[in-house]
Amino acid sequence: KIEIVTFSRKSSRGDFVFSADRLIRLVVEEGLNQLPYTECTVTTPTGHKYEGVKFEKGNCGVSIMRSGEAMEQGLRDCCRSIRIGKILIQSDEETQRAKVYYAKFPPDIYRRKVLLMYPILSTGNTVIEAVKVLVEHGVQPSVIILLSLFSTPHGAKSIIQEFPEITILTTEVHPVAPTHFGQKYFGTD
């Protein structure tokens, strides 16, 4: 049974963060399910052998600042030692054109699978610019998995048209995205 999680401008910040963190964890875990793994045998503390799987090396997260940083803890809760890069992109108020201000990645990012974290996908412009920066650093779009909580059809379509090889994971596609997410999550509303 899956409980429906709702966001509202009237939700308390605590309730909002609790619900957002639950959704983030679900999306992160599904993103991790998309990463390559190898089979392995583990000996339990009682001496029994267990056939399991482990992630192959070479994965990382990249958060699009600031709202994408809300997803970092969910990723670290599942993969404690995963490397995380950051990109700061801001849109011009008048033109809605996205501009990159900062990017810091693991030096070998071009060899890694990338979980790109950005919770609210509205126009797709910010993510498109972030993917362009990753491509400039040698990352192939086919190894990028976008983790998003909410997406508009227009935003998802824009990204897929520009980068058809990218994988997009989201909890909902709806014409209206809750653009107040970052302010509510970080308490700056």
Automatic annotation (TrEMBL):
It holds the Pfam family UPRTase. Keywords: Cytoplasm, Glycosyltransferase, GTP-binding, Nucleotide-binding, Nucleus, Transferase. Gene3D superfamilies: 3.40.50.2020. Residues 9-174 form the Phosphoribosyltransferase domain. InterPro entries: PRTase-like, PRTase_dom. It is found in: Cytoplasm; Nucleus. CDD domains: PRTases_typeI. GO terms for molecular function: glycosyltransferase activity; GTP binding. GO terms for cellular component: cytoplasm; nucleus. Its main location: cytoplasm. Belongs to the UPRTase family. This is Uracil phosphoribosyltransferase homolog. It comes from Psophia crepitans (common trumpeter).
